[in-house]
Design brief:
This protein is of the alpha/beta class. It has helices spanning 10-16, 42-50, 64-77, 88-99, 114-124, 139-145, 168-177, 190-193, 229-241, 247-279, 298-304, 319-328, 359-365, 381-392, and strands at residues 81-85, 105-109, 130-134, 150-156, 181-185, 203-207, 221-225, 284-288, 311-316, 334-335, 345-347, 371-375. The chain has 2 domains: 9-256, Aspartate Aminotransferase, domain 2, CATH 3.40.640; 261-392, Aspartate Aminotransferase, domain 1. The chain has 14 helices and 12 strands. The strands form 2 sheets. It has a 7-stranded mixed β-sheet with strand order 1-7-6-5-4-2-3, sandwiched between helices. Pyridoxal-5'-phosphate binds at residues 87-89, 113, 156, 160, 185, 187, 207, 209, 219, 221.
């Protein structure tokens, strides 16, 4: 079914890539809820286990539904291989454990998801992998932070929650020059609006939990890149250590990918309208959204992305109390830290997603107490504004 899909357009890939229709003739992809696979005889079992014959053995290694999701996402990101994982965090962990060893060094943007900082500092740090942090768009700082033992450059662009942008192509040149791998967390844009591999990145990370699902149902992650590193080294880690994606979740994400281009367009349009409106509210000190002309990297965002994403952050006057008042005054928007859902969500990063960082780390990352993050859903924007105006007036 998906043979020759290289020629298809992006929207067709989102709907069709990775489908291998069975003899039942199903139109929608089936869910293979099976933990193991049956061999014709002992010789076939031996051939599969030795690798002499390709095919399924056990669902920790491969599963047809998971593979359909992996092939579809690889096609959308323009990567040779994708491996699906049980969460976005374990996609990052698997990449690091497969590709790094004790004594290696990571340079990361300081504007990354709070749990990723904890993963790098508290867990990789225990095994002798050290991480240095640099401001996302300070290219001199990236260059200076690279040491002879630096193996990975890691960033999110746009960043969570301040929607800062890094020039991926520029960092890819630096990574290549200094012999490092460039790893980009593409959660906020998805391949619909940004394709880091085409800009020179080596590996793309996803929390499928966000826009790939799109309706806030399942937790999952993915890693996309080349056949050697992702298809062999990272897949080898996953197969042995086991943080694999469940077939049911893979099916939910697979169906989510079919509507991803349409949803991303709608999320971005709603976020832009909300951001423009927030800029006019007297109690709002600053709005962070790359689609606004006031965003310091608006031009770079226009060049590198085909859309501006669905997340808008803003700072209200009055610090934490004022921010909590806005959040607690909502009746429609969901108070939850997840994002990328059809339902608009609102959160206070300083006490939720970034609450486990020290006050100094938060200050360095620019996450103030008055900051609120909204993930624009697919409701009528007028209703979302109405919901916010209660706490803002
Ligand atoms: C940018 C980003 N990367 C990674 C993650 C981790 O993903 P997960 O929650 O699926 O483990 C998140 C989760 O919120 C995120 O926002």
């Amino acid at each position: 079914m998906s043979d020759g899909f290289q020629e298809w357009g992006f929207d067709t890939l989102a709907v069709r890539a990775g489908q291998h229709r069975t003899n039942e003739g199903e139109n929608s992809e089936p869910i293979f809820l099976t933990s193991s696979y049956v061999f014709k005889n002992a010789a076939e079992a031996a051939a599969r286990f030795s690798g002499a014959q390709p095919g399924n053995i056990y669902s920790r290694f491969t599963n047809p539904t998971v593979r359909a999701f992996e092939e579809r996402l690889a096609a959308l990101e323009g990567g040779e291989k994708c491996v699906a994982t049980a969460s976005g965090m374990v996609a990052i962990l698997s990449t690091c454990l497969a590709l790094l060893k004790g004594g290696d060094h990571i340079v990361a943007s300081r504007n990354i998801f709070g749990a990723t900082v904890l993963l790098f500092n508290n867990f990789l740090g225990k095994f002798g992998v050290e991480t240095s942090y640099v401001p996302l768009a300070d290219y001199d700082a990236w260059e200076k932070a690279i040491r002879p033992n630096t193996k990975l450059l890691f960033l999110e662009t746009p960043s969570n929650p301040l929607m800062e942008i890094a020039d991926i192509a520029r960092l890819a040149v630096l990574a290549r020059k200094r012999g490092c791998l460039l790893v980009v967390d593409n959660v906020f844009c998805t391949p619909v609006q940004q394709q880091p591999l085409a800009l020179g990145a080596d590996i793309v990370i996803h929390s499928a939990t966000k826009y790939l699902d799109g309706q806030g149902r399942c937790v999952g992650g993915a890693i996309v890149g080349d056949a050697e590193r992702v298809g062999k080294e990272i897949f080898g880690f996953l197969r042995t250590c086991g943080p694999s994606m469940s077939p049911f979740n893979a099916w939910v994400f697979l169906k989510g990918l079919e509507t991803l281009p349409l949803r991303m367009k709608a999320h971005s349009a709603n976020a832009l309208e909300l951001a423009r409106w927030l800029e006019q509210q007297p109690r709002v000190k600053r709005v962070y959204y790359p689609g606004l002309a006031s965003h310091p990297q608006h031009e770079l965002a226009k060049k590198q992305q085909s859309g501006f994403g669905g997340v808008v952050s803003f700072e209200v006057a009055g610090g934490k109390d004022a921010a909590w008042h806005v959040i607690d005054s909502t009746r429609l928007i969901s108070i939850t830290a997840n994002l990328g859902d059809t339902k608009s969500t609102i959160t206070h990063p300083a006490t939720t997603t970034h609450g486990r960082l020290t006050p100094e780390q938060r200050q360095e990352a620019g996450i103030g107490d008055g900051l609120i993050r909204i993930s624009a859903g697919l409701e009528a924007v007028a209703d979302v504004k109405q919901d916010l105006v209660r706490g803002l007036s």
